[in-house]
Amino acid sequence: xxxxxxxxxxxxxxxxxxxxxxxxxxxxxxxxxxxxxxxxxxxxxxxxxxxxxxxxxxxxxxxxxxxxxxxxxxxxxxxxxxxxxxxxxxxxxxxxxxxxxxxxxxxxxxxxxxxxxxx
Amino acid sequence: xxxxxxxxxxxxxxxxxxxxxxxxxxxxxxxxxxxxxxxxxxxxxxxxxxxxxxxxxxxxxxxxxxxxxxxxxxxxxxxxxxxxxxxxxxxxxxxxxxxxxxxxxxxxxxxxxxxxxxxxxxxxxxxxxxxxxxxxxxxx
Lengths: 119, 140
Fold this sequence. Notes:
The structure holds two protein chains of two kinds.
Chain A: E1 3-10, E2 13-14, E3 23-30, E4 33-42, H1 48-57, E5 62-64, H2 70-78, E6 82-84, E7 88-89, H3 91-100, E8 108-109
Parallel strand pairs in A: 1-5, 5-6, 7-8
Antiparallel strand pairs in A: 1-2, 1-3, 3-4
Chain B: H1 3-6, E1 10-14, H2 18-30, E2 34-38, H3 41-50, E3 55-59, H4 67-77, E4 82-87, H5 92-100, E5 105-108, E6 111-112, H6 113-139
Parallel strand pairs in B: 1-2, 1-3, 3-4, 4-5
Helix pairs in contact in B: 3-4
């Protein structure tokens, strides 16, 4: 089944706080392979409510984020979204592992120095 | 449009939401645009006077001069400048008004970066075609 992942980012990294994130990356994938071009959305201002609404409207199946409040975590889980919270590190690595299904909650991702912003 | 062609494409973002504008600037610069920002209508007009951009991304709601006022002023002083209106969720009507005042197109917030880039490139190309037409007229 095709899945759609939402990753909250800030510069090179997974955004440390869900409620303060303004950059959203959406990636569609199936059986470990990315499908199509990832989509990057830039929000006018940070809003945890707007992010939850966007996740529902976009039929997101998986979210990778930093610190998320319990109320929003519970809402998303209730909406059948798999939330990988407290992920720290480079978002490219997070996407790679998320798509492969090997990313876990609270994982710290170490990145190489030469990995700089390209997207 | 190739990355090489984008290198000299100057984009000015006029928006009072500093974080939003600076994120757009960062992401556009990573894609080889030369993007800068102004955080008010007056600041935008001053920046355009100093160094006119190829494309202006213009927010409609700003505290001093709003986007439509900026657009009206540009119509007089910089009629060839390609402008893309940035409007908040639900302000479709304002975007339409902007287009009536000569904006090339409008885009709703939150912004899909790929869509924004394609609109910037379209705006730049249409500006090129317009100036070709103008040059053609003056040559005749």
